Amino acid sequence: MKERGRPKCPRRVELTPEVIYFKPRGVPLRELEVVCIAIEELEALRLVDLEGLTQEEASLKMGISRRAFWEDLQSARRKVTFALTNGKAIEISGGDYVTVGEENKGCRRSA
Fold this sequence. Notes:
By secondary structure, the protein is α/β, with parallel strands linked by helices. It has helices spanning about 40-50, 55-60, 65-85; strands spanning about 10-15, 20, 35, 90, 95-100.
């Protein structure tokens, strides 16, 4: 199924996690439903909830609009809250991002 609207702009990400799974203690991963959080969603959480940036500051750092940032942040918060309150595992992987220092410095669309 094709997505509607404009293509998603790659987000700039400073840090990629070394640990990509979190799960409830005492339950084997194979027995758990896994909630997937994209790398850029984790970056949104990190910038606002850990670094204390405003959404405006964080969106500029990631090279995206404030609305796109807000959508990533809300999605990440929903997924983490769902996993924690329902005993699900969390996997951090995938997404549409570039690491800081790569050639692409955000989304630049030609007319």
